[in-house]
Structures are given as C-alpha cells and as structure tokens.
Amino acid sequence: MANDDRLKKVIAHAKEYGFVFPSSEIYDGLAAAYDYGPYGVELKNNIKQYWWKSMVQYHENIVGLDAAIFMHPSTWKASGHVDAFNDPMIDNKDSKKRYRADVLVEDYLLKIEEKNKKDIAKAAKRFGADFDQAQFEATNPRILKRKEEMENIKTRLYGALEEGRLDDVRQLIIDLGIACPVSGSKNWTEVRQFNLMFSTQLGSTSDGASKIYLRPETAQGIFVNFLNVQKTARMKIPFGIAQIGKAFRNEIVARQFIFRMREFEQMEMQFFVRPGEDRKWFDYWKEERMKWHLALGIPASEYRFHEHEKLAHYANAAFDIEFNFPMGFKELEGIHSRTDFDLKSHQELSGKKLQYHDPELGKSYVPYVIETSIGLDRTFLAILSYAYQEEKLEGGSERTVLKIPPFLAPVKIAVLPLVKKDGLAEKAHSVLEDLKTDYNCFYEEKDSIGKRYRRQDAIGTPYCITIDHDTMQDNRVTIRERDSMKQERIPISQIREYVKERLHF
Ligand code: GAP
Fold first, then answer.
1. Where do the structural domains in the chain lie, given as residue ranges?
2. What is the band of 5 on the pLDDT scale with cuts at 50, 70, 90?
3. Does ligand 1 lie within 6 Å of residue 332's CB atom?
C-alpha cells in the first residue's frame, strides 16, 4: 500500500471506528485539532499508563508531578521561549502557502541523500557479495561530491539560523532553486520568525490584566517545582520527575493528522544529575527509551536514532527517536541533555536558589538535566498506523484488523452470546460481570458471529469469547485470538488465567 494511501486509510478508519474525530466537525472542523473518541481515549489512557508505570512505578528514583498549564509569565522569559521559541517561515507568493524555511532546505538535503542511497544500492547489486559499502562511500566521486555539497548547505543553513541572518536563509533557498511543492514557483517572500507560543490574558481585560502563555512544553512545570519535589519526596541525586500533560504550540504548518497539532499531549521526564555526569546519563536514557519502544513488539527496523545538528537553545546534545510513520521516518521522542540551563535561568530571574546539597560530595550545586520527551499523540499514531492491516482470508474474504499490542488494546475482551435466547445472554452476562472489574470488556448480541468478530478486529480487541448452546451443558466457551483467528475451547473457570497470561505487558 502506498504511504499516502496508508495514512488516508488510517485516518478514515480512526474516524469510522471511534478513535479520532476532527475537532468541532459540525462547524467543518478546526485545523490541527482533534478529539479522541471512545476507543481512542482507551488506547491513549493505556499508552499513558504504560509510560507512567515504566517510568515512575518501576524506578524508585522517579516521582510524578501534575503542574498547572498556566504558569507565571516570567517562566517563559527564563526558559528562553519568549525570545527563542521561533520558527523561520517563508511564504510562496503564488500558492500563498507558508513553509518552515529550514524544513524546505532539509527536504532538499534529503533528496540529495536519496540519490546517494540509490547509487549505493545499484553498486551493491552490481558487485554482489564482494561489495564493500564503506570503501565505496569513501571513494566514489559522485557520492563524495554530493556529501560535500550537503555539508556546505548545512554549514550555510545552520550558521545563518544561529546568527539570525534570515536574509541568508532566503538566499540559500533561492540559490538551491527550491520551488514551492504546490505552485511549483520560486516566488518567495522574506523569511520571518514566528513565535510558537499561544498567549491569553489572565484576569479582566482592564489595565490590571497580564499576558500569560499556554505552556509550549510540560518541562517547565517540573523545573520550577524542582526543590518542592526534591524536598517533599526526599529525593537524592540522581533522580527524576515525570509528568504527562497538554502542551500548546501555534504550529504554522500543522498537518499530517495527529502528528503535528496545536494542542497535544507530552509525557516528559527530567532526570537531575551531578554536573559532569550528564553524558553518562544521556547515553543511559537514550538506550532505555529505545528499549521502551521495542517492548511494544514493533520491529527495531521501524525505529532509528537521529542526532540533532541544530540544537535547541537549552541543549548541549540531543537525539530523536524516529519512527517509520506512513509519511516516512519522523520524530517520535526527543532525548535532550539540557545542561543546567533551565534551573540556572529560573534561579537568576526569580532570585530563589535552585540548588541541591549533595551530602556525598559535601557541596551544593545546580544539577544538570537529561530530558526524555515523547509525544503521546505521536505514539498513538505510531501504534495505530503500524497496527492497521488489511488481510485477505482463505475463501477470498477480507478483514481490516488493528494488531495493537494486546496490553494496549482499547477493549481487551468481547463477550458474545451466539444467540440471545435459551439463557445464552444471561450466561454471557455472568462471564462479563466477572471480567469487567479487571478488563475493559465489550458485550454484543446483535448480528452474525462473523460480523461481530470483524467489528472487534477493526477496533483491535485481542480476545473474543463466544457463548453457545454447548456452553450451557459443559461450561466451556470458545475463545478466539485476534491475530491468528485461532479458536480454543476452555472452561469458564480458566478464562481469567488465560487472558491474564496474555494481556500482561
Ligand atoms: N521539552 C522538550 C520538548 O518539548 P520537543 O522535541 O519540542 O521537545 C517533544 O517535543 C515531543 O513532543 C516530540 O518528540 C513530539 O513527539 C511531541 N510534539 C512536539 N510538537 C508536537 C506537535 N505540534 N504535535 C504533536 N506532538 C508534538
């Protein structure tokens, strides 16, 4: 299935089966805002729980926090977001479309890289088993020329961005002959910086009102509470503070479904360490977070690390974990070494000490911070899009199935009496009553059993339990597994044990 088709199909399926709806759809929707439906909210909650358990419950030295979305405006001055949380934007005068200037150049770089990849693949085919890729890359003149060209472009782009030379960024776009993907023209405006924070007024709109921002990241709530948490939870460095919550960004180019939204949810953890130990912990969390993703059972080939060349204003090292979304490899999570930038800035602007007294070292210092920051909505999209499968079955029929990892599935068990009469519905209800205290279950007695199985496949329910006439005699049910569609007959008394073994993460 072509990638574009796949994304379209996932979006349509998410809507049809109650996972994700466009926001305020009856008014034709609101760009880049989405609502999570009955199955979407279950999947989202299960992802949150998986993250929270892995980070907080399984680590003795990580505790949680739920800070307010509104924060004192000075927070965003200290964090650098007022001055530096900008995207360089450029408009095409013909299509009236707006683009991130740096992304236009980065897309151009990707095209050059693709050419190199094609040449490497061709050579590998030609030379067969004798092919030495490293040597080929180091000696092939065409590859070397392209690599040099890419380096020159990067130096120009990142140098200009770093020093705020926006006219040079525009000139680079013109020199490279980059055209608008919509109009095909090279008729570009100036490049301008847009701050991504949403602002509003606190209090009445009279003179006393002050401008505040909707938080663009949850992290700052953790930084300003660093000492509150450290003291009250009696934490010793190294320790972490985890938080899940909404963040808001006035993304200029918001697109690709729930991948880039203006209101989204983050799951962030700030890990406070001794100065000088930041690199060690950065490497540790980079690996740990990748393990968390792989534990979902999605193959490693769907993930990759990407090292940042242009660092955010607060970081001295940063890696993304990218996922192979239907639109290609894109950022899913960021692991950032944020130094002591945030705590120091808050200390300076607030005049309040944000230091930790290290009893082992016998001195006080401002800790360094390693951050892991993952988008909940992007994780949702990664899981949903990978899970979406269209299968041809024996006998020529087809099914659409969501192969969501069972422990994350919105509905874990569907209880289905074959028919309503002859006491089957009552029996099915007694099975349901027993299971629903521990699992999110679904009960349905309408339509043929085949149709009911298909509907459960479409929302990713891992187990369907069917109660038939034999059940009334032998107290056994048929349990059907979503992916293999295999059916087993087991005693009602063993259902709990059966599903418990298989729904554990
Ligand atoms: N505190 C660090 C921080 O916010 P980031 O790389 O800007 O870093 C972290 O964001 C994660 O939040 C990203 O990896 C992504 O998963 C998610 N994210 C960022 N912007 C988003 C948006 N507009 N829509 C959905 N998710 C977004």
1. 1-73+196-403, 86-194, 411-503
2. confident
3. yes
Rounded to the nearest whole angstrom, what is the distance from the C-alpha of residue 256 to the centroid of ligand 1?
A: 14
> What is the DSSP-derived secondary structure letter of residue 395?
T
The two beta strands, 86-92 and 62-64, are: unpaired
Determine if ligand 1 sits within 6 Å of the CB of residue 376.
no
Determine the pLDDT at residue 3: 66
**For residue range 125-143, what is the model confidence (pLDDT) as tens digits?**
999 988 999 999 999 999 9
* Ligand 1 center–CA 206 separation, angstroms: 34
Strands 441-443 and 413-417: parallel
Mean pLDDT of 227-239: 97
Query: Is pLDDT above 90 for 1?
Result: no
Q: Which atom of ligand 1 is nearest to the CA of 251?
A: 23
Which architecture characterizes domain 86-194 according to CATH?
2-Layer Sandwich (3.30)
**Ligand 1: does its nearest atom lie under 6 Å from the Cβ of 268?**
yes
Distance 269 CA to ligand 1 centre (A): 13
266 CB near ligand 1 (under 6 Å) = yes
Whether ligand 1 lies within 6 angstroms of the CB of 379 is answered as: no
Please report, for residues 175, 299, 318, 332, 403, the alpha-carbon distance to residue 291 in angstroms, rounded to integers and kept in the order given: 43, 11, 18, 14, 20
CATH of 411-503, one of 3.30.365.10, 3.40.50.10240, 3.40.50.800, 1.20.950.20: 3.40.50.800
Contact between residue 186 and residue 177 where contact means Cβ atoms under 8 Å apart = yes
* Burial track 454-490 (b if 16+ CB lie within 10 A, e otherwise): bebbbbbbbbbbbbbeebeeeebbbbbebeeeeeeee
Number of Cβ atoms within 10 Å of the Cβ of 7: 20
Give yes or no for a contact between 475 and 493, defined as CB atoms under 8 angstroms apart: yes
pLDDT of 310: 76
Q: Which residues are CB-contacts of 360 (< 8 A; sequence separation ≥ 6)? A: none
**Is the C-beta atom of 334 inside 6 A of ligand 1?**
yes
- What pTM was computed for the model? 0.86
Report, as an integer, the average pLDDT of 149-174.
93
Confidence of residue 180 (pLDDT cuts 50, 70, 90): very high
SS3 461: coil
What rounded mean pLDDT belongs to the chain? 94
Inform me whether the pLDDT recorded for 208 exceeds 90. Answer: no
Q: Which one is the CATH code of 1-73+196-403: 2.40.10.10, 3.30.930.10, 3.40.50.2300, 2.60.120.10?
A: 3.30.930.10
Secondary structure (DSSP) of 404-415: --GGG-S--EEE
